[in-house]
Design brief:
Elements (H helix, E strand, L loop, with lengths): L6 E5 L4 H12 L3 E6 L2 H13 L3 E6 L5 H15 L4 E4 L19 H29 L2 E6 L3 H4 L5 H21 L4 E8 L10 H8 L17 H8 L10 E4 L7
Parallel strand pairs: 1-2, 1-4, 2-3, 4-5, 5-6, 6-7
Helix pairs in contact: 1-8, 3-4, 4-6
């Protein structure tokens, strides 16, 4: 029960790794807020958690909209009295038909689409939660980046740039928010088998990362959630501005 009575908002938590974060946090005693653009999916996840005796509340949230995100933070603070943890997990990735190709052929609309969610969405969520955490003089912000920041993935220029921006924003906010006792850290999961429906294409894509790892197997959501729990708990109270790589040794940082 390392998060007993803590209030944790997780964006993009209706499915995949986000849902795995939410379940683990709830199992550790947190009041979990499932913030996802998929409203019915979020409600379904919250109902599932409550059926297991866990505390969960869902709110449909579009991280591209500041008014929507600000409403999420305000309603959460009103309902629970505080916000202890924010995981900025919502992002556009290959499960949403991410465009791939050379920089000069990248459509402008596609660049904007990905940056709007993956980087601007993180900024908006932080912008809305920081005043609440400053009043508390405490809080944990956990941003989800990607190992593509280190490797310079050659076929996803907009996605890679967005995740590099997340790392940079993490470092800036860590310096700005330290005086208020707010921790801001970042983690980079590897290619993870988090899909609810595993097709042959999905299986091959996830298995393609195995050869580069020290641990020669596919990464699963349960491989990642412990690191998020560490960053959300008091065990990481004197750690801020850092990037933790959770990729089975594919990247050594």
């Amino acid at each position: 029960m390392r998060l007993q009575n803590k209030v944790a908002i997780i964006t993009g938590a209706a499915h995949g790794i986000g849902k795995a974060y939410a379940r683990r946090f709830a199992e550790e005693g947190a009041h979990v807020v499932i913030a996802d653009i998929d409203g019915p999916g979020g409600e379904s996840a919250a109902k599932e958690f409550r059926g297991a005796g866990l505390s969960a509340w869902a709110r449909q949230t579009d991280v591209r909209s500041y008014s929507n995100v600000d409403g999420l933070m305000s309603e959460t603070a009103q309902r629970f009295g505080r916000i202890d943890v924010l995981i900025n997990n919502a992002a556009i990735y290959v499960t949403q038909k991410l465009w791939t190709g050379p920089v000069e052929e990248l459509p402008l609309a596609e660049w904007d689409r990905v940056l709007e969610v993956n980087l601007r969405g993180v900024f908006l969520c932080c912008k809305a939660v920081i005043p609440i955490m400053k009043k508390q003089r405490s809080g944990k912000i956990i941003n989800i980046a990607s190992g593509t920041f280190f490797t310079g993935s050659s076929n996803m220029p907009h996605y890679t740039a967005s995740k590099g921006g997340v790392v940079a924003l993490t470092r800036v906010m860590a310096r700005q928010l330290g005086p208020w006792g707010i921790n801001v850290n970042c983690m980079t999961p590897g290619s993870t088998m988090s899909e609810e429906v595993v097709t042959e294409e999905v299986r091959k894509r996830r298995e393609s990362s195995v050869a580069q790892r020290c641990f020669k197997r596919v990464e699963l959501p349960e491989d990642i959630v412990g690191t998020a729990l560490f960053l959300a708990s008091s065990d990481s109270d004197f750690m801020t501005g850092q990037v933790l790589v959770v990729e089975g040794g594919a990247i050594m940082h």
